[in-house]
Specification:
This protein is of the alpha+beta class. 54% of the residues lie in helices and 13% in strands. Bound molecules: flavin-adenine dinucleotide.
């Protein structure tokens, strides 16, 4: 609603109970993705509203099914429901998706789940959607990378610092330049590590449903809960950053619409905002997920890493396992700091939450890269496909040497707490 985005307790849309068990929904919703379109014969809206006399704030919110066309008992479409798309927003990107203002004027709605338990019902969808948006960040980064890579091999500008690589041509392709390589390696190491981490998380999701082992189901559930805000926040921040960096590879052409790179930048930006802005993901991580069940999930995360390190003590694995253990120690230090300081002064937790999310994500990426290194090592010594696995290991080392060191900055910033962030009064700005 216009006045109520993150803070759903402020919601005004109301639901009036009817004698036949349905509700009349009245209110205005904004920013509704695909709120109106011609691609399906009916559009089924899930709408949050407050039933008259409901408890104050978020505890009084219920969830309703509100179809564009009412559905008859035999499943065929009936009368148009009393809802209408008031306007479509003009926006920065995702122009294939209509972002609608939706007006409900006594529209017929059907309660989904229990009265006043709408938030819990909605989070079934939200948790799924947050992982979907995390995937959006990753895929935008991958698409931007593939386009930048083609351009970097094709565009001839300047000569390699170490002597011409293609002397027969007017200039070398820009992929010879270390600064272009830096960008391509950043994107490649992120994309492959993030893909592995997301697939590992998906496996935990499957195990949480189908494992016959109670402990394994519990672990799967805990990992999904813990990692959902981490993946949503980190992958979508990186998706936008990587799209911008890939745009840089194209120089001026990256800014010109014809080449398509500026569209990736515009499209990637929304993923940091919707399904809960990334700052809110960081608060979800430090405020809810860390403390849940006495910290069971985060301790399970540390144990998974410790078990992996214990089981992979070969000399070949040492660079990857040492890196993993180092970031795990940083994360433990940050977690202890958060538990000791965040409860006394919640502003400490708030001010450090985004750096904590990034540090957590780096531990996840280090775990993903260590697992890929373990799979690649035996196949990297020769034979068919060895070059592919050597490339994988070189990318793993790039992650360890050039991306993982960011952990130090995140830990240092976490431990400054709220003072430097909150020192000014609002009127000092
Ligand atoms: C293109 C688009 C499509 C969308 N699609 C849908 C959709 O289909 N369905 C739907 O329901 N919504 C949709 N949204 C809404 C979207 O989820 C919200 O815009 C988003 O959750 C942020 O809410 P807000 O815009 O009101 O920002 P605000 O809540 O006003 O937040 C502004 C800033 O303040 C920060 N902030 C707010 N509260 C706190 C706090 N307590 N602590 C710390 N920081 C805080 C936020 O992180 C953010 O950076 C869409 C939005 C857009 C732009």
């Amino acid at each position: 609603e216009p006045h109520c985005g993150t803070d759903l307790g402020l919601m005004r849309t109301k639901a009036e109970p009817q004698a036949d068990g349905t509700y009349k929904i009245t209110g205005t919703k904004i920013f509704i993705s695909a709120g109106e379109h011609d691609m399906a014969e009916n559009i089924i809206h899930l709408v949050l509203a407050k039933i008259a006399g409901a408890p104050e704030g978020i505890k009084g919110v219920s969830l309703f099914v509100v179809p564009k066309f009412l559905v008859k008992a035999d499943g065929s479409l009936g009368a148009r429901n009393a809802l209408i798309c008031g306007s479509i927003e003009h926006k920065m990107g995702i122009h294939g998706n209509s972002t609608c203002v939706m007006n409900y004027d006594g529209a017929t709605g059907y309660l989904l789940g229990e009265p006043h338990k709408g938030m819990r019902a909605m989070f079934t969808m939200m948790n799924d959607a947050r992982l979907g948006v995390a995937l959006q960040g990753l895929t935008q980064s991958e698409a931007a990378y593939q386009n930048a890579l083609i351009y970097a091999k094709d565009r001839l500008q300047g000569r390699s610092l170490t002597g011409a690589k293609e002397p027969g041509k007017a200039a070398d392709p820009i992929i010879v330049h270390p600064d272009i390589r830096r960008v391509l390696m950043n994107l490649k190491a992120f994309n492959e590590g993030a893909r592995m981490l997301l697939l590992w998380c998906a496996l935990q999701g499957d195990l949480s449903h189908v494992s016959t082992d109670d402990k394994e189901r519990e672990l799967g559930e805990d990992m999904m809960g813990l990692l959902t805000p981490v993946l949503k926040g980190y992958f979508t921040d990186m998706g936008f950053r990587n799209a911008t960096d890939a745009q840089q590879v194209l120089g001026g052409h990256g800014y010109i619409a014809e080449w398509g790179m500026e569209q990736f930048v515009r499209d990637a930006r929304i993923a940091m905002i919707y399904e809960g802005a990334n700052g809110i993901q960081a608060l979800d991580l430090v405020g809810r997920k860390l403390a849940m069940n006495g910290g069971r999930a985060v301790f399970a995360w540390f144990k998974l890493i410790d078990d992996f390190a214990q089981a992979n003590k070969s000399a070949e694995m040492k660079p990857y396992v040492d890196a993993l253990i180092t970031v795990r120690k940083d994360l433990e230090e940050a977690t202890t700091w958060m538990m000791n300081n965040g409860l006394n002064n919640p502003d400490h937790a708030g001010a450090s939450s985004m750096d904590y999310l990034y540090l957590f994500a780096l531990s996840g990426m280090a775990f993903a890269w260590a697992q890929m290194a373990r799979a690649a090592l035996p196949k990297s010594h020769g034979g068919t496909g060895a070059e592919y696995y050597q490339t994988k290991l070189a990318t793993a080392r790039y992650f360890v040497d050039r991306m993982l060191p960011d952990r130090l900055a995140h830990l240092a910033k976490i431990k400054t707490g709220a003072e430097p962030v909150m020192a000014l009064k609002a009127e000092h700005f």
